């Protein structure tokens, strides 16, 4: 939204309080971000619970959607990790649906994109990585550290490779968090800029004739953003599966 | 559920990270945050809290209710389809068996029909044969009787001829003025006849 005469593409990412709340001195106010998290969960639950409530053998529309999501994620997970990966299915499915719904709902005009907040994507990335570490250590003990030592290496190269492996492991949560955050943020900023540019041109006398150009760009970008919204949820999920695979089978 | 204690642990980790968040971001200028809202550290605890609440709720709903339900629906459908396919193949097998049975009974019926037809043919030809034989027998009997009649008539006629010849001879002799005994005449006639 334009604040005054200038256009502020960052305004859409501002978190504003709706209900003031405090817990042990920490500010946990219910904000527009919280509201859209609740909406995300409500939408996913609507599809997954209300849609499947009839348990029909021949599914209706919502039930088809729920089944498609189920099979999509389960095929993704078992494709990467094999059958053992299904123990993480609830987690991976919840992550995928939450991120996808948040990305898609963020495309609604005037909505708030939950996944455009770095703290949210970072929390998800940490959740995934800590699951990998906790499960990997619980299941394999010190053998889990074999993840950093590829087999069949000359002893001379070993220290460097192990260092690189450790750095690559540590950079995983960072890249996981930044990729989703960056894509959502940049896409929405670009949309806002082109939209605002169209409006400014319309108010600029003879230059108004040029207004269709940024408008067309904004329309094309909107389509692209829908693709990105799905793609980023997909990428986040498949990387989660790849990392979980390391916890399941550390000796590669 | 083996995952539950872990997710509780993760929620705690998230809260811990949230507590550390403001401290980490404290280096940023207090006013500068408003220029780039996603890095506004003062909103982090609230976002993390509500994320933990909403995502935790979603996780529980999905893992406890939705996913087992969808899995059960898919399983049920697979069973229904498998059952229907099994029933269909059983029905097909049964149909094939019935077709085979029909084929064999048809062949049997054809064979027995041929047997009956042959029997009937034999029987009727025997009958015809018997009738023909009877008729022929009848005819030949009639032929024999007719022949006997003809012979009888002929011999009778021949007998008459002898009498007529006798009469004629005695008459001719009378006219000629000579006489002969009947015995002599009969002797002469039989001599001519021989």
Provide the fold topology.
The complex is a heterodimer of chains A (252) and B (194).
Chain A: E1 2-3, E2 6-7, E3 17-19, E4 22-23, E5 26-27, E6 30-31, H1 32-50, H2 61-81, H3 89-105, H4 118-140, H5 158-202, H6 212-248
Chain B: H1 3-25, H2 44-176, H3 182-193
Helix pairs in contact in B: 1-2, 2-3
In what range is the share of β-strand residues of chain B? under 5%
- Helicity of chain B, as a percent range: over 70%
N- and C-termini, Cα separation of chain A? 50 Å
* Largest sheet: spatial strand order of chain A: 1-2
Q: Rg of chain A to the nearest angstrom?
A: 22 Å
The low-pLDDT segments of chain B are 1-33
Low-pLDDT runs of chain A: 1-5
Mean pLDDT of chain B: 80
What's a quick, concise take on this entry?
The complex is a heterodimer of chains A (252) and B (194). Chain A is mainly alpha-helical and 252 residues long.
Characterization of the model:
- The complex is a heterodimer of chains A (252) and B (194).
- Chain A is mainly α and 252 residues long.
- Chain A has a domain at 2-14 and 88-248.
- Chain A has helices at 32-50, 61-81, 89-105, 118-140, 158-202, 212-248; strands spanning 2-3, 6-7, 17-19, 22-23, 26-27, 30-31.
- In chain A, the strands form three sheets. In chain A, strands 1-2 form a two-stranded antiparallel ribbon. Chain A has a two-stranded antiparallel ribbon with strand order 3-6.
- The longest helix of chain A is centred in the last third of the chain and has 45 residues, at 158-202.
- Chain A is globular.
- Chain B is mainly α and 194 residues long.
- Among the domains of chain B are: 3-90, no CATH class; 149-193, no CATH class.
- At the A-B interface, strand 5, strand 6, helix 1, helix 2 and helix 3 of A face helix 1 and helix 2 of B.
Q: Which features would summarize this protein structure in a list?
A:
heterodimer; A: 252 residues; mainly alpha; two-stranded antiparallel ribbon; 6 helices; 5% strand; disordered N terminus; B: 194 residues; 87% helix
